Amino acid sequence: MRLVILGGGESGVGTAILGKKKGYEVFVSDFGKIKGNYKEILLINGISWEEEKHTEELILNAAVVMKSPGIPDKSPIVKKLKERGIPVISEIEFAAPFTKATIIGITGSNGKTTTTMLTHHLLKSAGLNVGLGGNIGKSFAWQIADNKYDSYVLELSSFQLDGIIDFKPHIAIITNISPDHLDRYEYKYENYIDSKFRITMNQTEDDYLIYDADDEAICNWFKTHTTKAKLIPFSLTKIFSEGAYIKNNKMEIKISQEEFTMDTEHIALEGKHNMKNAMAATSVAKLMQIRKATIRESLSNFQGVEHRLEKVLKIQNVQYINDSKATNVNATFFALDSMNTPTVWIVGGVDKGNDYNELMSLVREKVKAIICLGVDNKKIIDVFGNVVDMMIEVDNMNDAVRMAQRLTEKGDSVLLSPACASFDLFENYEDRGNQFKQAVKNL
């Protein structure tokens, strides 16, 4: 069986190692450059590869193709594979049949990384032998090749879910849905929503779907679709006989006749959106039979996620906050909503079809100045130009941070929450966040 892998990054190399171990003839093809450490691993494992090209005669003879999530369906090589009826799948689809572990799959437009990390923290703190993978950490396929975890917590993007056929998590979470990556979905929001719900398409009556019952797109989907999975909703405003909710500043969770309560003030994460992430993760912990005392302790000591509303430093009584992971408008909405001081907002990057008007009321209320950090800032300037007193364009992080410092007074905050992808000026959102932190430290 010939397994061809498109993309020589973490998921590609991980799949190659698992494929080789399971007896496939493996070939890795990357249209860009493959990092040195990954090349070494491929060589050590006797796996053939190519970079900076896709050689058709070495690819179109595959029995199955694993495509990295970053490669769009409209790329020429993927179109040719599909025309020939060769299955093009994602890493999770390829890897899942090779493990008997319990799989917890988490998707959503925002909050999925925090929810994934928190779920993993809850299960690991309880002594479970649990792996962390998907969009974060080590490749899922690689972990299956190397390790013997009893369960996995996977952060799943819509692109990974697009490439599944039979994959099903025992427990699925949809944190929320808001317009994102619409450039990959023919600019049709409904296509993107359907893509997220693929997480539950193979679930049975023995599986669970945990979801945000306050989310308009999710609730609308349920009006015209069904899933076989048992439903566990969570909400900030509604109360359920089965599900999770907040009542009188207490988080309450009721699942199969069991109850769990905890004062929200003891939960380490702050902000309304993080209460939702905590409800989702705690619902998993309850389904996995984790003791209440362990859950309480883990919720109170969780450290949060880097580049997500991360407090960097306070300088001259001005708080600098790194929210570089906010790559869409909805994520930035949560960030601005959690600000309770006058804010200088650093925004911009590669726009994925954003509607900034959703932020208008928050910008009017909280933002004193906007610093546009992108190659093309026209859209942001058009929307907010008349709303804030000061609007400045810069093209590098050092200028952005220095300018922000000039515009602040004691008691203000500086928030990097770009609402955009980072690929115009930075390698990725981590690079953008790290440059911000370094620039703040250099002040």
Automatic annotation (TrEMBL):
Give the domain of life: Bacteria
For this UniProt record, the keywords arranged alphabetically read as follows:
ATP-binding, Cell cycle, Cell division, Cell shape, Cell wall biogenesis/degradation, Cytoplasm, Ligase, Nucleotide-binding, Peptidoglycan synthesis
Occurrences of domain Mur ligase C-terminal (ranges) = 307-420
User: Where ATP is bound, by residue?
Assistant: G108, S109, N110, G111, K112, T113, T114
Write out the catalysed reaction: UDP-N-acetyl-alpha-D-muramoyl-L-alanine + D-glutamate + ATP = UDP-N-acetyl-alpha-D-muramoyl-L-alanyl-D-glutamate + ADP + phosphate + H(+)
* Subcellular localization, as worded in the UniProt entry: Cytoplasm
Offer an example of a GO molecular function term for this protein: UDP-N-acetylmuramoylalanine-D-glutamate ligase activity
An annotated GO cellular component of this protein is:
cytoplasm
A Pfam family per the record: Mur_ligase_C
Known pathway = Cell wall biogenesis; peptidoglycan biosynthesis
GO BP terms, alphabetized: cell division; cell wall organization; peptidoglycan biosynthetic process; regulation of cell shape
The EC number(s) attached to this protein equal: 6.3.2.9
Q: Which residues form the Mur ligase central domain?
A: 106-284
The primary location reported for this protein is cytoplasm
Instruction: Quote the NCBIfam families the UniProt record gives.
Output: murD
Q: What does this protein do?
A: Cell wall formation. Catalyzes the addition of glutamate to the nucleotide precursor UDP-N-acetylmuramoyl-L-alanine (UMA).
Please report which protein family the annotation says this sequence is part of.
Belongs to the MurCDEF family.
Name assigned to this protein: UDP-N-acetylmuramoylalanine--D-glutamate ligase
Lineage here is: Bacteria, Pseudomonadati, Bacteroidota, Flavobacteriia, Flavobacteriales
